[in-house]
Amino acid sequence: MYKKFEMELAGRTLRVDVGRVAKQANGAVLMHYGDTVVLSTATASDKPREGIDFFPLSVEYNEKLYAVGKIPGGFNKREGKASENAVLTCRVIDRPMRPLFPKDYRNDVTLENLVLSVEQDCSPELTAMLGSAIATAISDIPFDGPTASTQVGLVDGELVFNPTAEQKEKSDLALTVASTREKVIMIEAGANEVPEAKMLEAIFAAHEVNQKVIAFIDQIVAECGKPKHDYVSFAVPEELFEAIQKIVTPEEMEVAVFTDDKQTREENIRKITEKLEEAFADNEEWLAKLGEAVYQYQKKVVRKMILKDHKRPDGRAIEEIRPLAAEIDLIPRVHGSAMFTRGQTQICTITTLAPLSEAQKVDGLDESETSKRYMHHYNFPSYSVGETRPSRGPGRREIGHGALAERALVPVLPSEEEFPYAIRTVSETFESNGSTSQASVCASSMSLMAAGVPIKSAVAGISCGLVTGATDDDYLVLTDIQGLEDFFGDMDFKVAGTHKGITAIQMDIKIHGLTRPIIEEAIARTRKARVYILDEVMAKTIAEPRAQVGKYAPKIIQMNIDPAKIGEVVGQRGKTINAIIEKTGVKIDITDEGSVSICGVDADSMEQARKMIATIVTDFEAGMVLEGDVVSIKEFGAFIEFAPGKEGMVHISKIAKQRIDHVEDVLSIGDHVKVVCLGKDKMGRLSFSIKDVAE
């Protein structure tokens, strides 16, 4: 039965249609936010997937260019693989919802979002987040929701909820907060060095808005929600746990995991697992669940060690950061390089500079962003964790980590006018044991400075973890979590920023949300650790950006010309500008405003190109002296080319002091000569002289 629900959300109407389309999905809603329309569905398999030890949740966000009245570019007029924005949207939908499904649920679940129409002032990403939450909440899929999400901007010091396209352009903050009824469950932010206090204010202001949306969703569920279906539980039997503890005591397990070396710990666990496999060799049912049981046993022991005994697996204090190291210029010939090491996490970032013409073109639903001048890419090869698997290109995690580091560094980059380069940083993970994304922020910041990019301030990142007990006030926040504390803990709270404030946040949790005291403590901890890394490690490696770009980096000369003369520089079908490029070997970019960037490695060639362009756009006046080559000889005189496509004529009488009968007696094609402008002749054409140059 078709039902329609409406509420006002940040000054625009949010409408939810239930029972109108996609009725064969377990749950489906047609979301309208302004003129943005997204179909969100939630579908589950009838039976659990065999042979897995995780919840198989898939989230899709399908961008269709018809939603903004475009036909896809390229030869194949069909949408291709998911864009980076689509991947990041899938992750931001997944993160607040995954913790709310039962941990022992093994049925496949797919949350699909199809973007049908986009109004730029009404975010399709936010609409899809709300749609997935509502579709799942009204379905029969077990889910401890709902969740609600709000975007927050900061315009002229004031918080703005679900900002319009114009407000986003001026905003110092791009924050997304997801909440349950009581707690914050997901935070994603990019910020222009926003102070911690302002960030906290924004987070909990969004949380208040989310409560109104949850009340709206509750109304929909009350009228349209299906009873949740029963499912086969894959929880580890309690008798298996009891049997394991008789063979491997908690004290033995604590000794096995209590080490700062990942390989040693894994070897200890491997031996314990082999011992248990021998003990349960006759019980196939227990053997099938042994891997999950050992994981849960480790988790229980580690959490007890941390929460009750305040002991971390590697022996560190609760607020202690692992050993840190940094260096620059370890890779020759690249434009900039830096390596940052934190314990067994090691990232090397390489910076490449190029003319602005090499900025990445973006073909998506956001019409305000058509190109990206700064690109950060993150790679996570299997050897970094001591494993072997074929490389299939970046997955969603790599794309997400790359975008997080990119977001952290964009606020400190110089403007195009200050530094007219396209910039690419690539973070290679050499070793991983916790929070490589934040190590890549540190390495990238130093790499940019080593490359001579005049960033406004160094940026550092660090991650905090969490272990919770039975009550909201029974918890412990951990500074700089390593892999084990991430796997067995409840939170990965990543914060990057400068001395001045925060530039990026990403919060992943495995529980049903965080209270305000936990978030406040995590943000305070990350600031303290960030300042330490900036001052004691990064600043001692490279204190400020180098004054010049490196030897192997392209150099750029900028000049401005009258926009009306761009056509003269470009020439018919690009003939003139291509001739300059061929002659000098440089790259030339010209904007519609008349800003010209000349890019090359050889200074003399760049200056030659600059002079050619300056000559082309010059309004010649009497008395101006120029140089050029003889390109054509006629009976009445010679034609001199001063720059590609720019010629002038010297009459035979103006070639030499003495009278000559033939131009060829003095000049040959290819001769390089100096001339002086004499003004315009009777027909309004400019004429030049060779013999009058000295005068």
Automatic annotation (TrEMBL):
Zinc-finger keyword on record: no
Domain (S1 motif) ranges: 623-691
Name of encoding gene: pnp
Organism whose genome encodes this protein: Coprococcus comes ATCC 27758
Intracellular or extracellular location(s): Cytoplasm
PANTHER family: POLYRIBONUCLEOTIDE NUCLEOTIDYLTRANSFERASE, POLYRIBONUCLEOTIDE NUCLEOTIDYLTRANSFERASE 1, MITOCHONDRIAL
InterPro entries reported for this sequence: ExoRNase_PH_dom1, ExoRNase_PH_dom2, ExoRNase_PH_dom2_sf, KH_dom, KH_dom_type_1, KH_dom_type_1_sf, KIX_dom, NA-bd_OB-fold
Protein name, UniProt field: Polyribonucleotide nucleotidyltransferase
Family per similarity comment: Belongs to the polyribonucleotide nucleotidyltransferase family.
